[in-house]
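Interim report, section 4.2 (structural modelling).
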Amino acid sequence: MSVAESTPVSSKIPHVPKNRATFLHTAWRVIAKKPGRMVGLVIILFFTLMAIAGPYLYPRNLPINPNAIYAPISWKYPLGTDFEGTSNLALIVTGARYVLFAAFMAALFTVVIGTVLGLVSGYYVGWSDSVIMRITDFILTIPGFPLLVVLSTVWNFGQPVAMGFVLGITGWGGLARAVRSQTLSLRERGFIEAARTLGLSPFHILFKEILPNIASYIAMNLLLAITGSIYAEVGLFFLGVVPFQANNWGVMLNLAVFSAGAMSSVQALPYLLSPLIALLVLTLGVVLFLDAVDELFNPRLKEA
Amino acid sequence: MALEFEARDFHPRGMQIRDLHVIYQTNQGEIPAVNGVSMAIAPGKITGIIGESGSGKSTLAMALMNAVPKPGRIVKGSVVVDGAGDMLTIDKKIRQKVRGRDIGFVFQASQNSLNPLIRVGKQVLDLGRSHNIKDLRALLRRAKELLERMGMDAERILLSYQHELSGGMRQRVGIMLALVLEAQVVILDEPTTALDMISQASVLEIVRQIHQERHLTTILISHDMGVVADLADNVVVMYGGELAEAGSTEEILAHPLHPYTQGLIRAIPRISGPLDQAIALSGSPPDVAALKVPGCLFASRCPKRLPKCENSRPIYEAIGSDRYVACFRGTEHD
Amino acid sequence: MIDVKNLVKVFTAKKGVLGHDAIEAVSHMSFSIPGGGALSLIGESGSGKTTVGRILAGLEVPTSGDIWIQRVNVMTLPPAERRTFLRQVQLIQQDPYQALNPARTIEQSLEDPLKVIARERGKNGAWIQSRVHEVLLRVGMDPGSVLNKYPHMLSGGQRQRIVIARALTVEPKVLVADEAVSMIDVSLRLGVLKLLKDLRQEFGISLFFITHDVASARYVGEDGQLFVIYKGQVVESGPTDEIISQPHHPYTQALLSAVPVLKGLEDPGPDRFIPLRGNDQEQVPDTACIYEPRCPFAQAKCQKERPVLQGAGHAYACHFPVVRRVVATMK
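Predicted structure of the assembly:
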């Protein structure tokens, strides 16, 4: 127990097992607790795998079949075909890489920029805070979508990184503000003041004391930013304002609506629905998984 | 006195608690928070219930009102209030009337028991409306009387929001809200925790004076032996959800029988007398797992334990008039 | 050891567009604590006692005054050096629930400051580990059972011990304990108080003990000094036992009267009085005694002239000092 009088003072240091390797173990327990979380995880893993391995499953140029244009759903074409007779399933699978990679990059830019600027501006109140917040306000007032439309006239979005960068650079304002306000309240807490009197560096305080306390919030934002970015880029391609360079769910939507007339003809409906369903299932996966994130990063919810 | 209050006799009311069991349903199983508590609250007296955090004293307080918060649940027992019936079995509507009108509850000072968005005066009116009081003017008048009685500027307080009041003032407002419907039994749960010494002393003094003036029956719940010893007529000591000892304050303080009570008294630093008389109580309050041992709950911290203390639990029994203890060494030690 | 001369802290609050409202939280305070000694600062909430502690720990900058620690004037050090130097002053905060990072294990919290020191002194990881165990054992905690725990798994008393252990990692010369036991169960308070008292002797630490409870102050520093502070001003100061047995200022007497009397063991002091009037924030004119509005013994002079703290050794700021027997006596 915890009282001086009853503790034998030993000169040897007893071995205390480390529990840092058990994060994955804890994560598994948290996720396995509710079936919804498992479904979410499976969906996310499924799409991630699709993005990584998808393009290798099919030839570089997908086979076309002039005899099966807008073919209905069948064993050979589980999701039907497009205007050239290419399998919609192949289009979805090979298109996943661009969509997911661009979205992941966008979310990464959003979270890294938003978190760092939010932390710095919340912790160092003063002129740096004012400067960062003015920039944040400026970013927040830029309408991201129209900016992308304008940028796409001068910039080639053939590389997903470029797309992700532009989406990220316009999207971090909200997160920065939220992280700043959380940092502002945390910096008044006793343990931050204690860290200062113990002579710990500001870098340590920002990234080892404050960051773990908002980790669950940031992880949630990362996931939400991914879905948000997917919608934004798919939207751009759907509008057709970005030159088509690769297979992409947004391109499919665009062609389905504007070329195949899926809004009026039944035969092109599988062509329209397959990217929509892919988006829907992915979003569902993210939402289901979000439930686990809070518990995963919040030590209070971890069991003793 | 307002007319809609039926003529009530102002004989102090007592309370009889019999074999009360409250459990908490957690993911570690059922935890007995209050485990077979029986006691009589003497009418017109101040009864102090003392225990550490986790001793079940606050759960007991809520159980007396039949208001144990989830995931807690009263599984057994009775709480009979003189003139009102058994709180655990009477009709829900009547029970809500009894709370506030017969039994007043004062929450912990550190808790925000006042609504932060509503002025104090409006909360008095809301309380009156929920009890169907027609003469709200008389109610406000009574609230003012009480506040002034406690040495406060009543007009100003009634127009204040919670954040405009200091800790000691908030606690007095809490006492006013508990008494404004003329309750005759008052339960105070940790009324002075988080208050500084002078505010604590003045709140205790106010409780003492109002208790006498209004012939109340007062139940004071605290972790501070000093507070209980200063104010209460009778003391009940709780440990791990069970009763350890009870008796008159003078008796308990001068001749404590249970080693836990002895430890609590010795652990109070004093402002007179030799310093080395104060000895820290060793160990920690029992945790969930420790509540399930077959032996005495205090055995692991007890300096006077016997071999049988580890195996069987002593019975809480009377050893004199109004004197109870649950210890195998009963009356034998100092 | 620590030496404080003429410490003043004025807080300015913006008062609309018209200007500032200045509140003197600490007014011309001087004291010194030898190595291993103790000084208790007693007062109500809002008396400015916490501000003094935060200034000593380097969390607030005083408006004026000098602070000497180990014969170095802290105020003349360049900011970067001051930060490292003030590591010798460690603050034990009131709320052990806020003082530990909820997202980090006890081991992580204790290692952090030790890593900094290890870098400075060229020590290795094994040294850090042995220091972690050393400080935990010193505060009476079993390293094996707490190192991997998070703060929420510990009780208030255990957390406060961890906070003290963390302060010990940097080998402080001064400990500032700000209401260090007021949020801990009374039954466990004495253990923490005893720990603080023992650390004084064992490491020669000067203890600056901030409290509203005279009895705790007496327990940790019976041989030290007692300063009674009201609205930022010292109203009585001197050796702890002398002030408790011979209180001259009515405010000191009110604080002593407020200590609960243990029925059956003690008899209340014959002059005990409980002030019912609360601590109100109204400003007292500079020409009146600051305690006059609440003082039950105030006379006409108290409104016209502010008394100054005078006396060698045992000093008090009162026009009409009378010793009252307010302390309870053992039966």
